[in-house]
Amino acid sequence: MSDLLSLTIAEARDKLASKETSAVELTDAYLSAIDAANPMLNAYVAVTPDKAKAMAKASDDRIAKGEAGALDGIPLGIKDLYATEGVHTQACSHILDGFEPRYESTVTSNLWADGAVMLGKLNMDEFAMGSSNETSYYGPVKNPWRKEGSNVDLVPGGSSGGSAAAVAAHLCAGATATDTGGSIRQPAALTGTVGIKPTYGRCSRWGIVAFASSLDQAGPIARDVRDSAILLKSMASVDPKDTTSVDREVPDYEAAVGRSIKGLKIGVPKEYRMDGMPQEIETLWQKGIEWLKEAGAEIVDVSLPHTKYALPAYYIVAPAEASSNLARYDGVRYGLRVPGKDIVDMYEKTRAEGFGREVKRRIMIGTYVLSAGYYDAYYLQAQKVRTLIKRDFETVYGEGVDALLTPATPSAAFGIADQEMASDPVKMYLNDVFTVTVNMAGLPGIAVPAGLDAGGLPLGLQLIGRPFDEETLFSLGSVIEKAAGRFTPAKWW
Question: What pTM value is reported for the model?
Answer without folding.
Answer: 0.96
